[in-house]
Model the fold of this input.
Amino acid sequence: MTQQTNPLTALLQALRFAADKHRDQRRKGAAASPYINHPIEVATVLAEIGGIKDIDVLRAAVLHDTIEDTDTTGAELESLFGARVRSLVEEVTDDKKLPKAVRKQLQIDHAPHMTSGGTAVKFADKICNVADIGDSAPKGWTIERQLVYLDWAIAVVDASTERHEALEREFARVVKVARAAVQKRAEEQD
Ligand code: ZN
Done:
């Protein structure tokens, strides 16, 4: 971030950019809420629970799905938000050209090599995704798929070497809540 930019303005610029890029997308949950709610939630978890004040990390949280899920490029992020924001977003971006199973394994393999900021964004993202599964099953997801997702999210967090205690505690809490919710769904099915 350039020194003359007010941090709040910097954050709002990233938010406006992400809202525009995700404007036609919805979340997978039953409520199909606007996609932008998710990056806002991730940044909120980082600030409120993680105590993160680093504005580049908060901007990266707001932008974290723009390369993966929209036409945004790394170069575009760098020109607008600087090289550090770009590299933080790239740290948490999957290569969508790879098959899903490979991408999932790569998240576990890459976890120990991530920066502290990238790891914080990754933890907050997993907290939000797991909490969403607890709230409502993504459309079309079987019980099995929901449980596999929870186990995988735990594996990614466990593989990380950077520590963020408050975020890890919150992750453990939402996993517990989500697992109980999925269990209840399974019982209601039989
Ligand atoms: Zn995300």
In short: The CA atoms of residues 109 and 159 lie 8 Å apart. The pocket of zinc ion is lined by residues 38, 64-65, 125 (CB under 6 Å). The chain has ten helices and no strands.
